[in-house]
């Protein structure tokens, strides 16, 4: 307990840093994932090709390698001077968006094709059909896998600590460098991660129950 109390400000900053990285990356991943899922089921071949390439390339790239590219290559070419926080959110969000995309695409496939055909018969465009008819129905199926994806994102955010971001992993490195027993450090860090992951799990269970009532 002394370790936690003596370095409570550091633990608090690390916890808030992990929470911020997770929330911002999850929002980016959700937006990109839905867009890419729409591309992958689009009747327009170039959009389908782009969505497929996005998922195939990023999902099969190790996350650490993606961080290295994001931090040491992209700022030299596109966005010089970008903060480490924004770069970390970009790397985590883009990587996670591929898993969100596949979850959403699987949810779209559960919606009866007659729903889309009926929408087209009313003169709705593909994107109107997707936004107003298909996605709302697919949401019920998508919620459970999204919970696992965002829990994995929370744990993946630890990589950002090695790239000048303040989060729980960076706190453990700081305290281990000071000579504290690594076992106690990891105990408090693990409990902090459990708080975040259990909160995500509880939130999605609540959403599942609400959607079941709506059904």
TrEMBL record:
Signal sequence coordinates: none
Organism: Streptomyces cuspidosporus
Keywords tagged on the record: Amino-acid transport, Cell membrane, Membrane, Transmembrane, Transmembrane helix, Transport
Subcellular location: Cell membrane
Gene3D superfamilies: MetI-like
Transmembrane segments: 15-39, 60-79, 181-207
Protein name: Amino acid ABC transporter permease
Keyword Transport attached: yes
Recorded family membership: Belongs to the binding-protein-dependent transport system permease family. HisMQ subfamily.
Residues annotated as domain ABC transmembrane type-1: 15-204
Membrane topology per record: Multi-pass membrane protein
Domain of life of the organism encoding this protein: Bacteria
Pfam families in the cross-refs: BPD_transp_1
């Amino acid at each position: 307990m002394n370790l936690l109390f003596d370095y409570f400000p550091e633990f608090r900053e690390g916890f808030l840093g992990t929470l911020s990285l997770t929330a911002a990356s999850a929002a980016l991943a959700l937006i990109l994932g839905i867009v890419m899922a729409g591309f992958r089921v689009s009747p327009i071949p170039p959009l389908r090709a782009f969505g497929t390439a996005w998922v195939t390339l990023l999902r099969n790239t190790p996350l650490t390698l993606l961080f290295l590219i994001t931090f040491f290559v992209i700022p030299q070419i596109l966005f010089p001077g970008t903060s480490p926080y924004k770069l970390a959110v970009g790397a985590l969000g883009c990587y996670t968006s591929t898993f969100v995309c596949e979850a959403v695409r699987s949810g779209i496939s559960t919606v009866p094709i007659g729903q889309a055909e009926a929408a087209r018969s009313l003169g709705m465009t593909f994107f109107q059909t997707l936004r107003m008819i298909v996605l709302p129905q697919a949401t019920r199926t998508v919620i459970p896998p999204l919970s696992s994806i965002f829990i994995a994102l929370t744990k993946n955010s630890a990589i950002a600590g090695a790239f000048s971001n303040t989060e729980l992993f960076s706190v453990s490195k700081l305290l281990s460098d000071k000579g504290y027993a690594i076992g106690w450090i990891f105990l408090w860090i693990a409990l902090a991660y459990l708080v975040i992951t259990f909160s995500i799990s509880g939130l999605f269970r609540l959403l599942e129950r609400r959607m079941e009532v709506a059904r």
